[in-house]
Prior knowledge:
383 residues; single chain; alpha/beta; Rossmann fold; 8-stranded mixed sheet; globular; 14 helices; 16 strands; 5-stranded antiparallel sheet
Amino acid sequence: xxxxxxxxxxxxxxxxxxxxxxxxxxxxxxxxxxxxxxxxxxxxxxxxxxxxxxxxxxxxxxxxxxxxxxxxxxxxxxxxxxxxxxxxxxxxxxxxxxxxxxxxxxxxxxxxxxxxxxxxxxxxxxxxxxxxxxxxxxxxxxxxxxxxxxxxxxxxxxxxxxxxxxxxxxxxxxxxxxxxxxxxxxxxxxxxxxxxxxxxxxxxxxxxxxxxxxxxxxxxxxxxxxxxxxxxxxxxxxxxxxxxxxxxxxxxxxxxxxxxxxxxxxxxxxxxxxxxxxxxxxxxxxxxxxxxxxxxxxxxxxxxxxxxxxxxxxxxxxxxxxxxxxxxxxxxxxxxxxxxxxxxxxxxxxxxxxxxxxxxxxxxxxxxxxxxxxxxxxxxxxx
Length: 383
């Protein structure tokens, strides 16, 4: 695949990040874990993909998300959020808020529902996205930005396509056992190099991958230490607050679907100007690097930190149970100029061939109850 060429400034920024990563590799005996490489490629100050100034979302960016496709995504999410806010504190915290469109549309719909959110906190690592959020949300005085998660929080936590961007360790099955695939340099290029797994990684493989020893030699996959640790932190925060729930929306699978023998190359994927490919060493700092989420591991992390699993389902089921069909009909179907674009956007959100099946919604919480419509469609027994 021939990918678009960056401009001079973007290329220079990527080259600077490559030098930084190469220096880190040199200072660590010529090898770093892929998780460390991914962390630097995405979050290195001023140079990483999420820490730089390049546009990420929309037509000029690298990918789009459900809130960008239609305001009806947030309007549907607002329905169960409103019911839960009545059971806890009137505040929301969002992790990685993108352009700010989800927050804007959610707050707008909650106002229509008569729910007044007193505080909407955003934790955002990207300077470019934070600036966009501040512009998008300038008319919402209850919105504030945090540098870190609070120790305790009562209310609703939101993470839409956050877990997939957390660094992962790559591991590979060999005849002698499991190796970790890290990153080294070869003639000024980044390349993979394997080492025996550390005790920590080996323990995580045993805990996370069922029947790991039966997978074929050469099997490559991901271990999600950081996503699990993040989930534990969020869960601990909500548990300390006493009441609340977290909606975690992302693409991924439960464990028994994630580590299938035929998924032998893992799920690592890169996004550059709306092109998807599998080379994580292409233009570091200018492309997104993601991995699918193991929702069973995320649910287990929440359980171990004091929360309950309230519901799990695919995005299509969630949005339908939340009433997106009724929300679409706010626009009369005979008003074709307005209705058809919205209907096409909803189709994209719901279609099994698009986002409806691959994306999942996991709801975890404490001392709150979801609406019956969502409970009827709960598939948490599949985790």
